[in-house]
Every structure is written in C-alpha cells, then in structure tokens.
Amino acid sequence: MSNTADSPQPGSGSPGTGTTPRPPRRLRPVRVLTVGVFALAGLLFFTSFNTAKGTDIRTDSSLLKLSDLIHDRSHKNARLDESNATLRDDVEGLAKRTGGGSSKAEEARLAALEKNAGTQKLTGKAVTVTLNDAPPGATAKLPGYPEPQPDYLVIHQQDLQAVVNALWQGGARGIKVMDQRLISTSAVRCVGNTLILQGRVYSPPYKITAIGDPDKLQKSLAASPAIQNYMVYVNVYGLGWNVTENGTVTLPGYSGTVDLHYAKPVE
To answer: Transmembrane ranges (predicted)?
Structure first.
C-alpha cells in the first residue's frame, strides 16, 4: 500500500542520477498512539511494583496489622500503668515507714495535693453516663427528619467531651472514663469510632462515672446545650444514652505518668 508521500513524483529525481529518491517515512498517528500507550502502561507497572514492594496491595492485611498493633500497644500501656501504680504504692509505703524527713504539716499538704491531682482513690456517691452507637440499620424515628448519614449514628469526641465538661460544671470531685481516672492533663480523643485515652484504646459503649452530688450532676447534664443537641439524635436516630445513680463507689487513682510533654523550638 502506498500514499502520495511514498510515491515518486515526476521530475523530483536528483540531477544526473536517473533515479528518484524516496522521501523519509513519516510515522503514522496510529503508530505514535500505540507507542504512547505502551510507554504509559510500562510506567504504571513500574509505579505499582515500586509501591507494593512485593506485597499484595489489593488486600486489607496492612490495615489489619495496624489495628492489631494499636490494640497490642493499648494492652502494653495498661500493663505498664498497673506496674507503675504498684511501684508508686511501694514507694509511698516505704516513705511512710521511714518517715521521709517530712513534717506532719508537709505530709498533710502533700496528701491534699495528691487528692486534687487525682492520684489517690476517691469514694463517694456517683452518677454514671453511658453513651453508645445507634443500632445497625437505624432510621429516622420521627417525621420531618432526614434519613441518617453514617456520622449521625456513632459517638463523636465532642459528645464525650460534652458529658465530661457538664459533670465538672456540676461539681464533680472526680471522674472516671471507662476504667481510667481523669486528671488535669487528660485528653478525651476519638479516632474513627474508637476512644483513645492516655495511650489506651476503647470501643463503645462508653461509660463515664463522676463522684459528686447526684442531683447537681444530673441537673448540669440536662442544662448542657451540647447534650441537648445530642439528645435530638438519641430521640430521632437511636443513639445510646443512659444515666444511673450508683450509690457509693470508689474511683481508682490515676496510675499513669505525671510528666508533662510539650513542644520545643528547633534551634
């Protein structure tokens, strides 16, 4: 097959040769496109190989390994907290037996500081608030409300913070979230639908126990605008909410580290 570009033209030969030279063959657009497709495919194969590093990138095994790592570290942190609490009790016991070189006034001041810091057990009347995700397949229970989005059906960080803040405002003398005592440096944080508190991971339902005047604590919960907003989702989409009076309970003392960690400027 030939075209005008490949066909000789009359009078186009070189002088004195008697022959007609063929002009340079030009690549057809289809061939150029084919070369480009193969080059792009090779680049994609190389990128995929470099990313996978010999692993199957279509599976969730890496995510599962990360989840397992988080739970493993959470259990290790729990064991370290228990060990730290035991050592702290041993040190305090030894200090009491040896006298510690402190006067009675200094010991009384130290005991008051420990109580306010939350490192000692606390006993008193308590109220427990339980928050939970909505049941599977939840729909709007009341007319006029849209069908729920996924975010409507899970407990968020602001929900937990709202309960903790309301309990403090209601005069709580101590608060425990799940099995850990809160202190002034505690941060209630959520990642996805899990709670991360002082290096340990928890899943719903979340229980928050506060020691104080039960009537004042419940009134403070009812008066909180953030909790009033949460109650809309309780009534419409079925988020979990339960408040109970526990009688007299004992909160554990905070057993984690009391060292402060803060950012430092780069020199």
So the answer is: 30-49
Q: Please give the Cα distance from 117 to 12 (Å, whole number).
A: 101
**Virtual torsion, Cα 64, 65, 68, 69, nearest 10 deg:** -140
Contact 155, 206 (CB under 8 A): yes
Q: Which two tokens stand for residue 118?
A: 């939350």
In Å, what is the CA distance from 90 to each residue of 45, 97, 122, 168? 61, 11, 19, 31
Whether the CB-CB separation of 141 and 225 falls below 8 Å is answered with no
At 211-241, the pLDDT tens digits run 999 999 999 999 999 999 999 999 999 999 9
Tokens of 10: 């009359």
Contact predicate 211/118, CB 8 Å: no
**What is the pairing mode between strands 240-251 and 206-211?**
unpaired
How far is the C-alpha of 133 from the C-alpha of 119, rounded, in Å? Answer: 31
Prior bond of 143 cis (ω within 30°): no
